[in-house]
From TrEMBL:
The gene is mdh. This is Malate dehydrogenase. Belongs to the LDH/MDH superfamily. MDH type 2 family. The keyword NAD applies. Keywords: NAD, Oxidoreductase, Tricarboxylic acid cycle. Its EC number is 1.1.1.37. It is an enzyme of class 1 (oxidoreductase). It comes from Streptomyces hygroscopicus. Catalyzes the reversible oxidation of malate to oxaloacetate. Residues 6-145 form the Lactate/malate dehydrogenase N-terminal domain. The active site is at H187 (proton acceptor).
């Protein structure tokens, strides 16, 4: 049997945590033959609820689940972690400016990055889900100088999956027939879902759609504002779909992308496509042997260029803001 993989989940008592933990424990994160040990990190007020969730996990009698530890100390929770899902974050509350939000989250992600640096396993892979995800990932990465920078990633897979679903509805093709979609930039309203390289049943998606106005006025805003639409409809933010995307992100990272396809992830820029080096920005990526690689050499048309640049500009402003706050 394989050695258990230690998976640390922060914000374990939150709504995404509740949708995520059972899927991890059942083997959907890493594979049906990989035993897992769960480490749950919460703030003190969240510990009791996390214990309740752990009781329910016990009650599922998952054959792959080797143990559950709960802590409010990052140094304990990240000890020996192979995979870290950073879900817990400080949400924006009424009257909070963006600077306040970045500062509050810096107070979470900087110490967590340091704890990962000091205690996680050598093969640690980090996915940041908590918003603002890209910049929180940058803060954690900067606090972990001994961990290769590319091990820190931010989640745009939910945006990617939302784009797949919208394009499927528009074209009538099942999602399984849609390949090579891309989310570029920030996981925010400025993100750019790009269909120009995508394929629908083997044909170029932009040609199949053949409606630039639909792309500009319907598709892009529907994907970018889907989170708000879910809140409006459900009275709570996306949870099961966010957990599903986190599962997809890590599963792909570990097990690879299919030949002839790619996915989207927030990864450290190497300067590709004019995205300044070091920013954690969403790109088209393949995964192989446990590593993401940015897909190279795509033509970027004028329509795409403007939108990628706008989202990347927002990421640069966030980086500048956290630099001025001394967080990176
Ligand atoms: P909840 O408020 O339900 O849960 C968050 C949990 O995190 C709480 O239990 C809280 O006690 C805990 N927490 C807070 N600070 C912590 C810390 N320092 N250490 C450990 N735990 C801590 O939020 P939920 O709906 O689960 O969403 C979690 C995060 O995901 C939010 O930041 C949200 O904005 C973000 N999202 C990101 C998405 C993405 O695509 N990247 C989509 C879904 C979601 O909106």
């Amino acid at each position: 049997t394989r050695t258990p993989v230690t998976v640390t989940v922060t914000g374990a008592a939150g709504q995404i945590g509740y949708a995520l933990l059972f899927r991890i424990a059942s083997g959907q994160l890493l594979g049906a033959d990989v035993p897992v040990t769960l480490r749950l990190l919460e703030i003190p007020q969240g510990l009791k609820a996390a214990e309740g969730t752990a009781m329910e996990l016990d009650d599922c009698a998952f054959p792959l689940l080797q143990g559950i530890d709960i802590s409010d100390d990052p140094n304990v929770a990240f000890d020996g972690a192979n995979v870290a899902l950073l879900v817990g974050a400080r949400p924006r509350t009424k009257g909070m400016e963006r600077g306040d939000l970045l500062e509050a989250n810096g107070g979470i992600f900087k110490p967590q990055g340091k704890a990962i640096n000091d205690h996680a396993a050598d093969d640690i892979k980090v996915l940041v889900v908590g918003n603002p995800a890209n910049t929180n990932a940058l803060i954690a990465q900067a606090a972990a100088p001994d961990v290769p920078a590319e091990r820190f990633t931010a989640m745009t897979r939910l945006d990617h999956n939302r784009a797949l679903s919208q394009l499927s509805k528009k074209t009538g093709a099942p999602v399984s027939e849609i390949k090579k979609l891309t989310i570029w930039g920030n996981h925010s309203a400025t993100q750019y879902p790009d269909v120009f390289h995508a394929e629908v049943a083997g044909k170029n998606a932009a040609e199949v759609v053949n409606d630039e106005q639909w792309l500009a006025d319907t598709f892009i805003p529907t994907v970018a504002k889907r989170g708000a639409a879910i809140i409006e409809a459900r009275g709570a933010s996306s949870a099961a779909s966010a957990a599903n995307a986190a599962i997809d992100h890590v599963y792909t990272w570990v097990n690879g992308t299919a030949a002839g396809d790619w996915t989207s992830a927030g990864v450290v820029s190497d300067g590709s496509y004019g995205v300044p080096q070091g920013l954690i920005s969403s790109f088209p990526v393949t995964a192989k042997d446990g590593k993401f690689e940015i897909v190279q050499g795509l033509d970027v048309n004028e329509f795409s260029r403007t939108r990628i640049d706008a989202s990347v500009k927002e990421l640069e402003e966030e980086r500048e803001a956290v630099r001025n706050l001394g967080l990176i």
